[in-house]
Amino acid sequence: MKARQDAVSDAAARDKLAAPDAALDMPDGALRAKAIKKPGHAKVRRHAVANPRFTGFGGQPIQTHRALRRLAFPRSRWIDVLLVPAFIFCCTLLAWPLIAEMWSGIIRFWANGLGSEMMLKAEPTSFPGIQSVPYAYVEAALPDPLQWWCGMLISITLLLATTLFSARMLPIAYALRVVGMVQLASQLYFYFWAAEFPYQSASSISALTQASMVLILLTPWIYGLLYNIFDFGIPRKILLSLLAVLYLIVLTPFQYTFAAWLMLRYSLLWHPLIYLLGSSLIQFGALVGFYSWAMSWQRRE
Fold first, then answer.
1. Dist CA 280 CA 271 (whole Å)
2. Of 104, 133, 295, 298, whose CB count within 10 A is highest?
3. Sign of torsion, CA 198 202 206 212?
């Protein structure tokens, strides 16, 4: 038994000594290929699993931005884009007598509470299906010296106060600066050319109210082109348009009744600020807010 183990050990020793000689007899290229073959396969395998161009710093995959994706738009989606806005548009148009009655009640309530100088009037329209649009009628005067100096003080205070805001409040600071600059421009205009101001409070409130009426009717079509093209489902698309339309219906009489009272109480000095920043800009901002909220909903696709 011991002689057999010694024979096996001698054979293993001879094979170990013969291995370097066999390696010397092999070509250099064969040795090189054999040495790099396994690492090369491992490298290819790693690239196939995760391409570094599509992975983040922590190794997580980078998703393709939705702006670069191809939007799936089946033909049935035209129902969402065309029929849903048409349905809400027709419902709003049919309900306009009730909407006008509600606006009249709101304006009449505030006109009775704010004094006899504010009245309820209705402006005839040429829009099919809508006979007239109620609005708050006031006749605002030009600013007197006290009102002008108060407006100038408010404008300067807004501009100077924004310099005290922290960095986290920069959006609010910028918004207040815009308000202050618009009002400062109005102050300068009414100081030099007050008698040449071409606008009246009554006609402006009437025009802004009619513009809101048009925007209410256009809101379903705006969302139809910008939101209904995505696969959120018909119930959610109807809900978004209805919420936006109802919001504008409720907002409009309060917004422009307050604007009419502001000009009546503090003169036409505030007319430019109301017309530029306190009218349709607020309403479009609300529509953008509703759209942003609805885009965060989970899609079906």
1. 14
2. 133
3. positive
Distance between CA atoms of residues 252 and 278, nearest Å: 11
**Which helix (H) or strand (E) segment is 280 a member of?**
helix 280-295
CA distance 271 to 187: 11
Residues sharing a CB contact under 8 Å with residue 56, sequence separation 6 or more, in sequence order: 62
Q: Please answer whether residues 270 and 203 qualify as being in contact, where contact means their C-beta atoms are separated by less than 8 angstroms.
A: no
Taking the C-alpha atoms of residue 209 and residue 248, their distance in angstroms, rounded to an integer, is: 11
- The pLDDT value given to residue 44: 46
CA pair distance 237, 220, nearest whole angstrom: 9
Q: Which two tokens stand for residue 247?
A: 């919001």
Q: What is the pLDDT of residue 300?
A: 74
Please provide the DSSP assignment of 183-229 as one string.
HHHHHHHHHHHGGG----HHHHHHHHHHHHHHHHHHHHHHHHHHTTT
Please report the pLDDT score of residue 46 as a whole number.
47
- Greatest distance between any 2 Cα atoms in the chain: 129
Tell me the three state secondary structure of residue 120. strand
> pLDDT under 70 in the chain at which residues?
1-50, 66-67, 301
Say how far apart CA 189 and CA 181 lie, in whole Å.
Answer: 12
Query: Could you give the CA distance from residue 133 to residue 213 in angstroms, rounded to a whole number?
Result: 8
Reported as type and span, the H/E element at residue 122 is strand 119-124
DSSP 27: -
Which pLDDT score, from 0 to 100, does residue 128 have?
85
Tokens (6 digits) for 214:
């048009």
Please enumerate in sequence order all residues whose Cβ is within 8 A of that of 147, keeping only pairs 6 or more positions apart, or say none: 266, 267, 269
Give strand pairing partners of 136.
120
The whole-angstrom separation of Cα 62 and Cα 57 is: 10
